[in-house]
Design goal:
By secondary structure, the protein is α+β, with helices and mostly antiparallel strands. The protein has eight helices and 20 strands.
């Protein structure tokens, strides 16, 4: 059973809202995805303004950065553009990134084939608490279910993480990718694509490091046995999109996120200057990049992890493939010493990434205060 993200402005006082919610019935059908049934009484006394999310503004888009170096564009110019985007937006798009379109297209095609299967076929590779890799259709964002189904895959197979979030537990466990029987080409397409995305991620890390006034390789040592992973996302069309979110407002807790999305769109970014939700218009063959919490900590707040969300569409399904770049499980995340001064002391205490990551993975199955 899939769920909806309900957003009701605080100023609205609706005494019988819980009664209305009890009339909401969700069914997860084999071929059509989540279907919404609402009794007419659900909307008695409710106005559009009560339940709307807002469509977001298109007045100003996130920066679009060309990663290629030429006679007319120096590495210093590129580094400056990356730094400005990280500081002012926390988000940017990149073109001429070096990832072959054919490699991306193969995985996108295989992803669509997988999600088009009957639910019982997809559930054969369902993820669980022991191994949180595989298919899932009840993912939580801030303890609220999203309007989507996902297939999670690790970049390093196996990926090593702490056995539990408990500080006293020094045990480790391995996460191993699950592979469906169909489509048979999914594994090869994914592994080829993952290699290309690693290359792009390291290139972006170097540019971000340079933009902070650090050596290009300053951050690379945190990713020797990284815990990065992918999500293949499918957002079914939603009969009443104003009552649901594909993904609720959130920030990414890793280092970097690199997103490939289709031409349907739906991603919105909260603009830092005024708090407005800004739609990210799809740019053909581009990638959307955002700074995660780890880079915010490493930079000691020079760069900020920014809130974003995904809207659903009443007519079209949407597909996306985010790559989450995460460090090794034993990395202690804290402000980089080169960026700490007497005038700008450390704003964060150190924390162990692996323990935090294990807690977040566990929260997909249990409602936790994280």
């Amino acid at each position: 059973m899939s769920g909806l993200f309900w957003e009701v402005p605080k100023e609205q006082k609706i005494s019988r809202f819980n009664v209305h919610l009890s009339r909401l019935i969700l069914h997860n059908f084999v071929t059509t995805g989540p279907i919404l049934y609402l009794e007419n009484r659900l909307f008695q006394g409710l106005t559009k303004s009560t339940l709307r999310h807002g469509r977001g503004t298109e007045a100003e888009g996130i920066p679009l950065i060309n990663l290629s170096i030429s006679n007319s564009k120096s590495i210093e110019t590129l580094v400056g553009e990356i730094g400005d985007a990280c500081k002012n937006w926390g988000f940017f798009q990149v073109i001429n990134h070096g990832v072959p379109f054919e490699t991306r297209e193969k995985l996108e095609s295989a992803s669509r084939k997988f999600f088009a299967q009957a639910t019982e076929e997809k559930l054969k590779v369902r993820r669980d608490e022991v191994n949180p890799l595989g298919y899932y259709d009840t993912e939580l964002t801030k303890n609220v279910r999203d309007w989507k189904e996902v297939f999670d895959l690790a970049v390093k197979n196996p990926t090593v993480i702490p056995a539990s979030p408990e500080a006293a537990d020094n045990g480790l466990r391995e996460l191993v990718n699950r592979w469906p029987e169909y489509p048979s080409e999914l594994r090869v397409a994914y592994e080829e694509y993952a290699k290309e995305m690693e290359k792009l991620a390291y290139k972006l890390l170097e540019l971000i490091s340079l933009s902070l006034g650090l050596p290009a390789n300053r951050l690379s040592g945190f990713f020797n046995n990284h815990t990065s992973f992918f999500k293949l996302n499918h957002y079914p069309s939603c009969p009443i999109p104003n009552l649901a979110l594909g993904v609720g407002p959130h920030k990414d807790d890793g280092a970097l996120t690199i997103l490939a999305q289709d031409d349907v769109g739906g991603l919105q970014v909260k603009r830092k200057t005024d708090g407005e939700w800004v739609q990210v218009r799809p740019t053909p063959h581009a990638y959307i990049v955002n700074v995660g919490d780890i880079i915010q900590v490493w930079s000691n707040d020079r760069y900020e992890s920014v809130e974003h969300r995904v809207m659903v569409n009443s007519e079209k399904e949407r597909f996306s493939m985010p790559f989450f770049l995460n460090p090794d499980h034993n990395v202690m995340v804290e402000p980089l010493e080169e960026l700490i001064t007497e005038q700008n002391p450390a704003k964060y205490r150190a924390y162990n990434w692996g323990k935090f990551f294990a807690t977040r993975k566990r929260s997909n199955f249990k409602k936790l205060g994280v």
